[in-house]
Amino acid sequence: MRSDTTIVRILGAVVSAFLALLVLPGAMAPPATAGEMVRPMARAPIAMSAPTTAPALSTFPLTVTVPALQGSTTGRTAVLLASRDGSTYTRLSTWKVPPGGRVKEFNVEAGEALGRLYLRTEVKGKGLAPQRKTIALRVTNPYRPTEPDNATIPEAGVPVTGTLFGNHPIVGTPEYAGTVRLWDVSTSWNQIERQRGRYTWDALDREVAKAEAAGQQVLLVLGGTPEWAAVAPAPGAEFAGPGSSMPMTDPRLFEDYVRAVVNRYGGRIAAYQIWNEANISQFWRGTPELMADLTARANRIIKDAVPGATVVAASTGSRWVKGFTEFYPDYLAALREFNWPIDAFAVHLYPLPGGTPRERAFLLGMMNTALRIAEAPPLPIWETEINYGITNPGTGDAARSIPDAEIPAYVGRTYLDSLRYGIARSYWYAWTPEYRLLGIQMWNGYLATQAYGRVREWVIGSTFHGCSTAGVVVQCNFDRNGYPFYVAYTDDGSAATVSRPDGMTVFQTMDGATQAAGAQVAISGTPVLIAGPVP
After folding, report:
1. Four-way CATH pick for 468-531: 1.10.260, 2.60.40, 1.25.40, 3.30.110
2. Which end of the chain has fewer CB atoms at under 10 Å, N or C?
3. Nearest-angstrom CA–CA distance, 425 and 428
4. Cα(328)–Cα(332) distance, rounded to whole angstroms?
5. In terms of Cα–Cα distance, which of 275, 288, 287, 265 is closest to 207?
6. DSSP state of 324
């Protein structure tokens, strides 16, 4: 039986704005000629094999088997058709079937539309009764949380620098942070330019000076809109003040503000983020296309004034899949039209209140899917906010408080998983004694701060060589000045053991306790350092 493969694309427009043919015009296989004798003949049925579901914009396999025609030398014609409603079909491909039968394999590229997709094969031959086989599958939303792949690490490894560890200084100066993100400290546009052309720089001057004194790089969030510049009052709640979520009456107002900031601070501010959580209406009620336009305008002004500054895309929340899907893919598409006027993408990977670092990683998988579909360039991903247990800020409900026993695991996993999955920076939210919306509090002397400092101590100044996984066991490989060490933990928080790597003699837990390492080292969801003697 003959076998071959064909690519069929289902892109979107012929059937219910979904199907477009790349092969052969026409709608149906030709009917039998009038008066032609149709011979009944016992035949095996047509077989069609495909997955029951396929994400939109993905490629899925389809195998069609037209069986042999026993006792006949008659050739046949097969037609593959598709339908969105199960009644009106569009032809996708036609091929010849010899008497001995034929296996035809298709790589079907699904389009954007969601819902039921029917695929039908019809086989006809001169003097033969037609055969037909129909199957159905469901085209699903491609933007779903999914496990990301471990990052591909170059052979030489990746240096681990202090900017992996970011924080938000709501009160005071964060310990151990290599970079701070200025947000929620009276440094947004609507808090600085309260009247057009009149700037109040006190808060931003203070925060920049604090960061400089601590040796921390500054990332400044530029939005949101001042009330005087908004096109209209917001129709609902806003998280950053009146008018802050609204488009401005003229984008040049935003340009003026950006220009004023970069002219004042120059290279003292290392990075600029266009907006905070632009996919959430309480922060942005404009279109994705306007946000991309503002991004391009800010990029031009910033690069003209400070060529070495980093321009970071507007961040997107990811825990609500619907909000992510309705905004972020369109924002990426618009950025592509502007030739990607950014140096880094940004995402907030807060899981839902019951979520763990494992669920956080799956949200990154959804982000990676969006970047892949948008054919985005390989720019760094910055996670510009992260914490756990948080509820919807709009409800005012208190967070799910993460138990003390789990805090070292959550904090340590966050930064090790950032390395593992290729996140360049993770900014903990936030540095303040108490914030009821957050499940983990980080402040001077707190348990979370100790864990943050411990994992930083382990990895800063080393070279990262990637993580290997065996079931739920994760082992991340590093060296410092040529001396290897490892950090191990389990993905699901379960207890396990790992074999002591050659040359390693001790292990250290997140509380700083160091013990001699036996042939097997006990691990759990809380990371453990496994190291050897260093002269």
Report:
1. 2.60.40
2. C
3. 10
4. 6
5. 265
6. H
CB contact set of 445 (below 8 Å; sequence gap of 6+): none
d(CA 9, CA 20): 7
Q: How far is CA 300 from CA 145, 247, 307, 310, in A?
A: 34, 20, 10, 12
The per-residue DSSP string of 490-519 comes to: ETTS--EEEEPPTT--EEE-TTS-EEE--S
Assess whether pLDDT exceeds 60 at residue 275. yes
Give the pLDDT confidence of 201-227 residue by residue, as tens digits.
Answer: 999 999 999 999 999 999 999 999 999
Q: What's the pTM?
A: 0.86
The residue behind tokens 């495909």 is 50
Chain centroid, CA 83 distance in Å: 32
Residue 522 CB coordination number (10 Å):
13
Q: How confident is the model at residue 397 (pLDDT cuts 50, 70, 90)?
A: confident
CATH fourth-level superfamily of 160-459: Glycosidases (3.20.20.80)
Report the pLDDT value the prediction gives residue 255, as an integer from 0 to 100. 98
Fold of domain 2-30+40-140 = Immunoglobulin-like (2.60.40)
Q: Mean pLDDT throughout 397-409?
A: 93
What confidence tier does 9 reach under pLDDT thresholds 50, 70, 90?
low
DSSP code for 442: B
| Total residue length of the chain | 535
C-alpha to C-alpha distances, 446 to 57, 162, 306, 525, nearest whole angstrom: 46, 20, 38, 20
Instruction: Tell me how far apart the alpha carbons of residues 65 and 128 are, in angstroms, rounded to a whole number.
Output: 18
Tens of pLDDT along 112-146? 888 999 999 999 998 888 999 999 999 999 999 99
| 171/487 Cα distance (integer angstroms) | 32
Region for residue 248 given its phi and psi (left: phi exceeds 0; alpha: psi -120 to 50; beta: otherwise): beta
Best CA proximity match to 251, nearest among 281, 265, 231, 227: 231
Domain boundaries, the chain: 2-30+40-140, 160-459, 468-531
The answer to whether the Cα torsion of 111, 113, 114, 117 is positive or negative is negative
Residue given tokens 């019809």 in the structure block: 122
The phi and psi torsions of 298 (rounded to 5 degrees) equal -65, -40
User: What residues form DSSP beta bridges with 477?
Assistant: 486
Residue (of 443, 461, 469, 457) closest to 523 by Cα position: 469
